[in-house]
């Protein structure tokens, strides 16, 4: 009997984790305080907005893809913060290797907010299609995104601006070891972007690592859910999707006209 009480006490005090999936106990009061507000928003037909943050190459995209795959019977869309980079001007382009793409100022947060507000109001938006070779957002046609029941906003710094955070019903931080993130980044940038290892390592030490420590890691405290090991944590993904389905089932969502693809 005594041992059972001890176990119960330990579980209560540590907010026991399930296979690496855990709620941040520091956020519990905030979740309770905002539950009423979130319920009111859902009753007015607004979508369920999920933020997925974490360091570069932490596995955010994999986590988003896995959530989308399991939400196959729901209207869901992913919006990437990378789409909202500022255009690099000619002066900056001449020294592009000294441009910090991991700094909050590199993003057009106002445009991101405008696009998200339209989606939350049931309006379709055109999302920029950023070209990482010319560092411009007007090289390719924009991507048309229709309003959805679920909007997943993904990016390294989506928790940095409180106005963006306030749009979210659920905030997820994908946590991965620094060595794993660096190895993934080297592989991605050398294979997909044609960069040499020396350049990748130079940018990592000058910009990526300091930005993670100064701007990204501090936002981990805002997360409702932290996922260690990213896409390898299937238990966490399953629990998140189950929670999303429960939330969606509690409220009346949009009714859509299949022919016009419009909200009724």
From TrEMBL:
Respond yes or no to whether keyword Amino-acid biosynthesis is given for this record.
Answer: no
UniProt keywords (A-Z) are: Allosteric enzyme, ATP-binding, GTP-binding, Kinase, Multifunctional enzyme, Nucleotide-binding, Transferase
Matching InterPro entries: P-loop_NTPase, PRK/URK, Uridine_kinase-like
Among its keywords, does the record have Kinase? yes
**Its pathway?**
Pyrimidine metabolism; UMP biosynthesis via salvage pathway; UMP from uridine: step 1/1; Pyrimidine metabolism; CTP biosynthesis via salvage pathway; CTP from cytidine: step 1/3
Enumerate the catalysed reactions.
cytidine + ATP = CMP + ADP + H(+); uridine + ATP = UMP + ADP + H(+)
Tell me which residues make up the Phosphoribulokinase/uridine kinase domain. 49-235
Q: Which Pfam families does its entry note?
A: PRK
Q: What is its EC number?
A: 2.7.1.48
Concerning NCBIfam families, the annotation shows:
PRK05480.1, udk
Family that this chain belongs to: Belongs to the uridine kinase family.
Name the chain's protein: Uridine kinase
- Protein species of origin: Brassica rapa subsp. trilocularis
